[in-house]
Amino acid sequence: MTDKRPTALITGASSGIGAVFAREFASRGHDLVIAARRTERLTALAEEITADHGVTVRVIASDLSVPGAAKKLATAVGKTPIDVLVNNSGWGRIGEFVTEDLDSMADEINVNIVSLTQLSRLFVAPMVERGRGTIINIASVAAYQPVPNMAVYAATKAYVLSFTEGLWGELQGTGVTALAVSPGGTATEFFDVAGGRSMGSALMTPNQVVATAMSALDARSPAPSVIVGAANRVLAMAGRFVPRRYLISVAKGLMKSGRA
User: pTM of whole model > 0.90?
Assistant: First the structure.
């Protein structure tokens, strides 16, 4: 009797960091459930991964901005035991809060906070029952300080960081772990959606983000969170010693210059 392969569920897997996580877990012998809105991209990724790694890949269309989407996705997954959950879906808008569209803002909060939290709850309980599992939540370096002109996004990522670290603490001794991964600006479609400028050569790659996450998980005693990139770690930690008024002013200046 052969052991069944573990299964990883990855949201926002149609491109960028999510797609790289899918390839990484497939290379480690995981079957996959990949979810996103753009099923044509998911299908192409599934065909590529199956050909390269010989694992089973299920594609599920999912819009996590819709209320109830987390339960709907869990229902679609069905009885398949999920050993790894990667809450990668997330997005934000660049602009002044006073001009934010209310519906768009609600969608952002639903994806970044509500669906992430509900998916974590839905899949962590079976993990604890089995005594093994991993939850990876994608936060951001924006979680470490307020960001004018991106106030809602930074606040949602601060929630992701705090929530994941708290969950990590609760899971000690269960065989299940949680990890918050905080990238800086990454070469994905984020800036196209956010309505801002990318930083060109200053952007890190999705491969760097995933490599950092996997290195943290492979450690003998995985930490509750990891910041991607040495410079980002220094800046995030330095913020603890800088007066908040100054920190916010600097963040505002960087956003206006397009270098944040």
Answer: no
Order of strands, sheet of 176-182, starting from the edge strand that comes earlier in the sequence: 57-61, 31-36, 7-11, 84-87, 133-138, 176-182, 225-227
Q: Distances from the Cα of 220 to the Cαs of 16, 52, 137, 213, 223, in angstroms?
A: 28, 29, 20, 14, 9
* Sign, Cα dihedral of 260, 12, 69, 226: negative
Lowest-pLDDT choice from 165-169, 183-187, 219-223: 183-187
- Determine the 3-state secondary structure of 239 from DSSP: helix
Burial string for 8-34 (b: 16+ CB within 10 Å, else e) reads: bbbbbbbbbbbbbbbbbbbeeebbbbb
* DSSP β-bridge partners for residue 135: 85, 178
> Over the stretch 180-220, which tens digit does the pLDDT of each residue have?
999 987 665 555 454 455 444 467 899 999 999 999 999 99
Query: Sorting pLDDT into bands at 50, 70 and 90, what band is 89?
Result: very high
Q: What distances in angstroms separate CA 53 from CA 42, 46, 83, 205, 214, one per listed residue?
A: 16, 10, 18, 22, 18
Superfamily designation of domain 7-257: NAD(P)-binding Rossmann-like Domain (3.40.50.720)
Closest CA to 123 of 70, 179, 59, 66: 70
| Identified catalytic residue from 144, 153, 159, 246 | 153
Is position 144 annotated as part of the catalytic site? no
In the structure encoding, which two tokens stand for residue 75, read together?
């229902």
For residues 79 and 102, what is the distance between their CA atoms, to the nearest angstrom? Answer: 37
- How many CB atoms are located within 10 Å of the residue 156 CB? 24
Nearest to 24 by CA among 3, 52, 2: 52
Query: What span, in angstroms and rounded, lies between the C-alpha atoms of 243 and 260?
Result: 19
Domain boundaries, the chain: 7-257
